[in-house]
Hints:
Strands 1-2 form a two-stranded antiparallel ribbon. The protein is elongated, with a radius of gyration of 24 Å. It is mostly helical. It has helices at 6-29, 40-54, 69-106, 125-140, 143-157, 168-177, 179-208, 214-255, and strands spanning 113-116, 121-124. The longest helix is centred in the last third of the chain and has 42 residues, at 214-255. A hairpin with a 4-residue loop joins strand 1 (113-116) and strand 2 (121-124). The chain is built from 8 helices and 2 strands. It has one domain (6-255).
Amino acid sequence: MINVTSAQLYTWIAMFIWPLTRILGLIATAPPFGSASVPMLVKILLGVVMALVIAPDVPVPPALDPMSMSGLMILLQQMLIGLSMGLAIRIVFAAVEMAGELISSTMGLGFAAFFDPQTQGRTSAISQVFSLLATMVFLSINGHLVLLAVMAESFHTLPITATPNTAEGFHQLALWGARIFSMGLQLSLPMLIALLITNLALGVLTRAAPQLNLFGIGFPITLLAGFVLIAIGLPYMLTPMQHFMSDGIEMMRMLGSVPTIGAPVKP
Length: 267
């Protein structure tokens, strides 16, 4: 007869539930898994399969009741860790989409917008093109596999414990989030400068010949110039995109090794 103690049962449940929570937090936010086009059932099944594969090698704390206060705090902690790691990669994609927004508004295509189910808001057509390009680049460099590998490594560099984490990881994530603007500007700056020169040339032309209809000739010219610049500049955007994605992976790895708060030393 097989006897199973409550401590063993708690350990088995914890070995599956807590890693699953961290993995689902990553899948919920990290592209391409976190896309709204991916069915919820697929996300859950992927998280369960990963948890079953990783769980036997995950170090867990001593037997704790998963439904106790300590167990629920660990559950919340793992969810925050997974969401933070996924957000580190999502910030890179947000920077690429911001570059598309800047180019779209400068070339006069800001009206070509539609509802984006990913962000639950308005997005421009150029931004969507850049987002799809970033997704293809990410998949071409096996970023999705590296993403899952870093998640598996994080259970050893940042093991599941009842001790809370320091706030240093969230501070670094906030600083990384500020780079949305710098990365987006770096990607779009060459095209923005060229479009600015085009608009200045149109302004000089209108000043020299006031009888010309600026709205009649300026709008098609800026649109044509914008599309030509995008066609020329897309191949040169691949290298900085790969560099930014590598930085995002390193940020994930850093978040997966944030030290915990040490126990107070008794005098």
